[in-house]
Model the fold of this input.
Amino acid sequence: MTLPSWPTDLPEPNGQGWKLLRGESRRRAQGDQGPPRMRRGISKAVDQMQMTLLLTHNERARFERFYREETSEGALPFLMPDWSRNGDLLTMADGTVLTDASGNRLTMSVIVPCLFSTDQLPSYAAIGAHWQLAFVITVLP
Done:
């Protein structure tokens, strides 16, 4: 089964419209005295990404088609760029930018498997002639 990919014709999250929420993978045990003991609880915690996009009417229609048809109302996983790292330059330890044989700078391409979170389904707010889309993505381990 091929996973659907995030539509490339949709904009990236705006400046403050992206936040990564780390999942908790530790177990806490409170003793009779002193600080709590922490130990690893699960092998991989599930992270979440909160996103806000500013869309035109056509972009909103494209997102709706992706959400309703390609991910079956958010029930199917999909692939999405991790905008916190996607497109960053690859560098060596001393800060030198890595290049290919032609001298082109190398950039990261970070794609993560995701699901729409049940914590916050996609919601819209009208902003002038645009739509502000807000949603939460669960990053699959």
Remarks:
- The first strand starts at residue 18 and ends at 21.
- The helical segments are 57-70.
- Residues 13 and 53 are 5 Å apart (CA to CA).
